[in-house]
Amino acid sequence: MAHDETSVIDSGTPASATAPPRTIPFGRPQLDEAEKRAVMDVLDGPTLTHGPRVGQFEADFAAFTGAEHAVATSSCAAALHLACLALGLGPGDDVLVSAQTHVATAHAVELCGANCVFIDSERKTGNIDVDRIEAAITPDTKAIALVHYLGFPAAMDRITSIAHAHGLAVIEDCAIALGTTVEGKHVGLSGDVGCFSFYPIKHITTAEGGMLITRRADIARAVSQYRAFGIDRNVVSERPLPGMYDVQSLGLNYRMNEIGAALGIEQLKKLPGFLAARRRNFRALAEGLADIDGVSVLGASQPIEHCACYCLVMMLDAWLSSRRVALIAALNSRGVGTSVYYPKPVPRMTYYRRKYNTRESDTPVAAWISDASLALPIGPHVSPDDIDYMITSIADVIEEVR
Ligand SMILES: *Cc1c(COP(=O)(O)O)cnc(C)c1O
Which ligand 1 atom is at minimum distance from the Cα of 209? Predict the structure, then answer.
């Protein structure tokens, strides 16, 4: 399945010769005539980059989230990298990073030459274990980079008060949390920056793309500059002749283009409906799984009225997790797409294990999630009938592999 970012497991690929009665991929972008028309409008016009649509998408995204500043980027990984650059992270600096996250959260830190110090997850939600943060802070610690895992909001009140007490910056990886609010405040706005992804199976898509939001004008300005070769924006608008500009710093090309922004503008209009479907699906699937022996739902006790509900992570009891490979194969052969979020805690990925000599026992909860879980689809492509089919299939398949 092309859009399974973990690429560990093929989603919904029939393993048997007989086709399953249904195919429910782990993720599927929701695009229709509105997106096609918006893209064709771009192609019919003269402007593929530096046009009005990126600015409009940024304004729409800022309005949706309530952010003072929104800067569109070529991906979430790019937004995270820009955030680390704008915060001035570099060699000699340590950043506390969620152990259970996409590798992009940690890579952004490493790409600036700073070091990661991994913090284990809490069992309840998989989010960063706040009780472990203070003990990990040293004079070299400059920031905290955390993920809102599966859309469950991390405890930002406690995290920001620790950060303030120690003078640390906070980067929120909101790649799978678009639509999560806490007391009306969107995730990404409690810390210094929030970064979002528009990869095809995320909440909305621009094919590839990302967004950075911040309350801080200085960060927005620095990020805008790093995003486009270090060209000073004011100098650009004040340039005396076309093509004449100055460069005062290093920079990258991490811009979004007009085609992506045209998609994003249309997708954002549909987001409230997508979120309602995700919450409905999460509730129905969690309810059905509650009656099945051997499994539990990560975050089952969390209120989800304001949660982005990215996917449902089903935890397997020990006896069942030893049969996970067979379970996945049997579900996939019935057309039920699955994934693993995430396949290894970041400190167990080879690059990090080699660099930091990390041990399994350092982050046991993150390891438990990676090793004993299975992620199930709850996106807007999944119908209530699909959920019933998934529940029946999971119950049957557990009996089969028992
Ligand atoms: C998908 C994802 C990313 C990477 O997003 P891209 O837009 O593909 O760069 C980063 N962080 C998390 C938590 C993700 O799930």
Answer: 7
